[in-house]
Amino acid sequence: MGVADQKIDSIKGKDIPQGVILSTLDGVVGWARKSSMWPLGFGLACCAIEMMCTAASRFDIARFGMEIFRSSPRQADLMIVAGRVSRKMAPIIRQLYNQMPEPKWVIAMGACASCGGVFNNYAVVQGVDKIIPVDIYVPGCPPRPEQLLDGIIKLHQKVQKEGLFEKKIEKKM
After folding, report:
1. Would you say 83 and 112 are in contact if contact means Cβ atoms under 8 Å apart?
2. How far apart are CA 94 and CA 31, in angstroms?
3. Could you tell me the sign of the dihedral formed by the alpha carbons of 169, 76, 24, 156, in that order?
4. CA angle in degrees (0–180, nearest 5) for 100-170-108
5. Minimum mean pLDDT among 10-19, 28-37, 136-145: which range?
């Protein structure tokens, strides 16, 4: 039993004043990060239409505080890559990713962004993870808005569990 456990046990026996919330710094920072994600929409093909539908009133991404897709990478911390990535577009995606402030996350939306989809040729990158690190893969061709919402919820759970000082291991590409 550690010192923190002893302190918590000593608090459990006493009445906590009304309006006092007990948490850890990691828990508060994780909650704040998951509750304030601003996406950078990067729609490249048919998956982009489904991504736009997610922001509409029927699916309402605003309940997660993500209703405004940022047009500048310096204002965003979540990149949603929706659609196939051509070899000409790859350096631009990498540049936009590098311009995003830390911490940053990436969702690969659709089969084309995840693994190249049906486009197995020289012009299409076989997965955006060859260019930038991906946190969540959303399968489908094209994936429904519900699937993107499910991916966002899974990313929120992942962000909530990350510690304040944990550094994501990013491989050099």
Report:
1. yes
2. 28
3. negative
4. 65
5. 10-19
110-137: pLDDT as tens digits? 888 888 878 888 888 898 999 999 999 9
Q: What is the pTM of this model?
A: 0.78
Scanning the structure block, which residue is given the tokens 């093909």? 45
Task: Report pLDDT for 166.
Answer: 66
Task: Give the span between the Cα atoms of 108 and 98, in whole angstroms.
Answer: 17
Closest CA to 63 of 34, 90, 43: 34
Contacts of 22 (CB under 8 A, 6+ apart): 11, 16
Give strand pairing partners of 40: 70, 79
Rg over CA atoms, the chain? 19
Sketch out the chain's domains with CATH numbers: 37-161 (3.40.50.12280)
Cα gap 155→52, rounded to integer Å: 19
- Over residues 93-98, mean pLDDT: 92
Distances in Å between the Cα of 172 and the Cα atoms of 2, 101, 132, 154 are 39, 17, 9, 25
Tell me which residue of 155, 144, 156, 154 sits closest to 56, measured CA to CA. 144
* CA–CA distance, 136 with 3 (Å, rounded to integer): 36
Q: Using DSSP, state whether 170 is helix, strand or coil.
A: coil
